[in-house]
Design goal:
Elements (H helix, E strand, L loop, with lengths): L1 H21 L7 E2 L2 E7 L10 E8 L9 E8 L5 E4 L2 E2 L3 H5 L2 E10 L3 E3 L8 E6 L4 H7 L1 H5 L6 H16 L1
Parallel strand pairs: 2-9
Antiparallel strand pairs: 1-6, 2-5, 3-4, 3-7, 7-8
């Protein structure tokens, strides 16, 4: 019986070590501070008053939109600059599960909703174009019609989409 218990303890120890190797972070995840700038692709002028979204997603079912683990948003100033401060990720899912991101998207009425790049850079430059802006505004409807996550950035995006849909 003692031999079996000793082998079981060794097995449990190896299993725990193996599992810890699969966990991205065994504790709180710190989101890095990010400085960014949003400019118009053609004119190279800053885009002021845009709402920039930083989105972290998890793995999803094939063909499905991956679940949002964490998202936050901020607004660009007159120079097109935006900042995301250092923050501890509020979701324990980010501490234990694989996340993808951050991805940087932005919204401004005349540009529509623009999906941006996924990057770990701490200095991000985003570009927007007025080309196909009307199509991107129509694409917002999906955010109003669907049940998106309840994090503050998803709620804000849903508000924007539903407000735009009511104007039509």
């Amino acid at each position: 019986m003692r031999k079996w218990a000793a082998k079981f303890r060794v097995f449990i120890a190896f299993a725990l070590v193996g599992l810890l190797g699969c966990v991205p972070s065994p504790g709180p995840v710190r989101l890095a501070a990010v400085d960014g700038r949003l400019i118009d692709r053609e004119s190279r002028h800053p885009i002021a008053g845009a709402q920039v979204f930083q989105v972290y997603r998890g793995a999803g079912a094939p063909g499905a939109d991956p679940h949002v683990y964490h998202a936050r948003w901020t607004q660009t100033d007159e120079r097109g600059a935006f900042v995301f401060a250092t923050q501890i990720a509020p979701s324990a899912r980010m501490w234990l599960l694989k996340t993808y991101g951050p991805r940087y998207d932005f919204y401004r009425g005349d540009y529509g909703f623009v999906r941006g790049p996924t990057t770990d850079a701490v200095d991000v430059e985003l570009e927007g174009s007025l080309e196909q802006a009307e199509q991107r505004l129509m694409d917002l409807q999906v955010f109003c019609d669907s049940s998106t996550a309840d994090d503050p950035a998803s709620v804000r995006l849903r508000e924007i989409a539903c407000t735009h849909a009511q104007r039509k």
